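Support reply, case 0932

Customer input (verbatim):
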Amino acid sequence: MKDEGADSGTASSRRSDCPKGANYDVFLSFRGPDTRDGFADCLYEFMTREGIRVFRDDEEIRHGEEIGGQILQAIQDTKIYIPIFSIGYASSRWCLRELAGMVERAYPDSSGGPTGHEILPIFYDAEPSDLKLETKLYRDALRKHERERGRHVVNPWKEALRKVAEIKGWQVKGQRHGKVLKDIIQEVSRRMTTRERIVPDDLVGITDRVEAIKKPLDLTCADIRFVVIYGMGGIGKTTLAKVVFNQFSPLFQGWSFLPDIRESSSRCDGIVKLQKKLLLDLFIVTFPETFDVDEGVNMMKHRLPNKRVMIVLDDVDDRDQLMQLAAKPDWFCPGSRIIITARDASVLPTAKVEGLEENVLTQSIKIYTYGMEELHSDHALQLFSK
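Our regenerated output:
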């Protein structure tokens, strides 16, 4: 292994094939001697073939003591961080510095609220217990760093390792690499999928309404929240839901927008198709040939508690539709947000038409309603002029 102070003259060509200044989809962090010519290289090549823009870092080309320049910019700009934990990962100061930077970006404070950045760890030939320093593997490496750099430098690295150890990742040891690589790429592709809803470029009067919805959504709270947007037909409920969805859905682990539920559910197998769309948006699933409404309910009941999601149920006009798509709030993982648009707030039987007043169902589940009103006269005139 080269010394960490070695010349980095070939760094730009070995870090990534993306042009300088580009935004990346994935930041790949690994210790070169352990995985560079094998697993990490295959993962990089396969993701690149799928059109995933990867910043591939190799700590051997680093020099100096601090992360800066292109590395810092890549961490800031990238949404998905993939550290590959190998036997020697913790022996590299650069790997540990990068990991601390990823954790700081993904978890900037103790609230644990969504930031739009996420860490997907790969445990190559190290285990979560190694990251928790419960074994000698990483613990001895950290002690060596402490002797050389000081405890104040190493403590953030320890905390970053312990934090990532709690994140569900991929175990490679004892698994077929081809299958693991396929699973990783599928998951990364799914998380990258843009489900942005199309809205007009010249919306009028939407900013105040989005601000009003932010209060009941409150993404910093870990409870489960339902927000019912109600009002007469054509007043802009769906447009508001789309704008809110586009702005906030990337901050969740999964998201789904089900449009025109009233019309869709009236068609043959309409509810089943809506259930399938919801499940496919949120999870990698395979449906049996005889899939029906009850099976859809059972599948959602068992899967939804495992992921923090944002779901929009657009144009609901029947309580049965809710019972088959979001029957009980306790289906959902803490931190999830479910937005419902309807002409009448009573479509959700426990909701009370009280503006933004909350109706507490349990200690961790809350329902809010937001009544859409006509545009202010100034905005109405502006819209008419457009």
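We compared this against your earlier run and they match. Two observations from our side: The chain has a mean pLDDT of 81. The chain has two domains: 11-192, 206-385. Please reopen the case if you see a mismatch on your end.
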